[in-house]
Write a structure and sequence with these properties.
Number of helices: 2
Oligomer: single chain
Distance between the termini: 64 Å
Shape: flat
Radius of gyration: 22 Å
């Protein structure tokens, strides 16, 4: 019997990233000050939101380009 280990690396790295962010927040909140912990956490939240917005804009541009390519190939009735 062969034991195969299939890992989804992107899922695992995402969970490790969340763990490190929470550990950084906890360390800053506990040892330096509450405001620094929330600034650290806010930075990562805003960075992720910016990535989502940029991905949505990129998808919209690709959709518009695909539609323009389709219209030019269309023949008249």
């Amino acid at each position: 019997m062969k034991l195969e280990l299939n890992l989804n690396w992107s899922w695992l790295l995402h969970k490790i990233r969340i763990l490190f962010i929470l550990l950084g927040f906890w360390a800053l909140y506990t040892y330096i000050g509450e405001i620094w912990g929330f600034l650290f956490l806010g930075y990562f939240i805003l960075n992720d939101l910016l990535e989502i917005v940029l991905d949505i804009e990129k998808m919209k541009e690709e959709k518009e380009k695909a539609w323009k390519g389709l219209v030019s190939k269309r023949k008249g009735f």
